[in-house]
Amino acid sequence: MAVEAVTQTVSNPQAYAALAKTLPKILIRFFQKFPPGRPYATEPQRPPRPEPVIRKAEDGTEEVISQPSPQDLLRASTPFTDPTYNPFLPWRNPITLRWRGPYYGLRRQAMLCKAAERHGVAELLPFSIKSPAEKLRRREERGLRVKGTGEEQKVKGHKWEREMKGKLRERKEAMLKMDELVREWKQKGHGRGWKNWPSGKAK
């Protein structure tokens, strides 16, 4: 589905029924739990803790009017009561201040994003680092994350690859001095008196 069609679907809730008939079950179940169109968070969430209602008097004193009820604390400790809760990102409990991992792990996020991309509804999913748009953005921002491809770096390679440049340079120098080497070889009796045969490393 094209981007224009997805935009029309978001603006027209009645089109969701027709769209759902073309989607696999994994996406239908996800959209039932997390309907598209909500303002989902795009970064790890840190909701505030319910605070008591305090009224400040004219003399500067403060008076506690009401305390959060147990129901309020219980509701705040559940991420599903927050309409902006993103199931692809971590969430911090405002009561215990402990982090809760994403509702969907990275493997399931990748499955959902790939399925949504195949059916052209990737724009309807909440923000995820596995989404095609986020992958493209990170690739453009960070480039190739391969060791040795950065500035003033080189890939280690095999030993013969690392020594090839030096060997070619020595071979080229030996070929340039070949006439002088042959002349010296003839003057000294065609090799008699030489301890070693000449090579590219001969000086």
UniProtKB/TrEMBL annotation:
<feature type="region of interest" description="Disordered">
    <location>
        <begin position="59"/>
        <end position="79"/>
    </location>
</feature>
<dbReference type="InterPro" id="IPR040922">
    <property type="entry name" value="Ribosomal_mL59_dom"/>
</dbReference>
<dbReference type="InterPro" id="IPR037507">
    <property type="entry name" value="Ribosomal_mL59"/>
</dbReference>
<protein>
    <recommendedName>
        <fullName>Large ribosomal subunit protein mL59 domain-containing protein</fullName>
    </recommendedName>
</protein>
<dbReference type="Pfam" id="PF18126">
    <property type="entry name" value="Mitoc_mL59"/>
</dbReference>
<feature type="domain" description="Large ribosomal subunit protein mL59">
    <location>
        <begin position="27"/>
        <end position="187"/>
    </location>
</feature>
<dbReference type="GO" id="GO:0003735">
    <property type="term" value="F:structural constituent of ribosome"/>
</dbReference>
<dbReference type="GO" id="GO:0005762">
    <property type="term" value="C:mitochondrial large ribosomal subunit"/>
</dbReference>
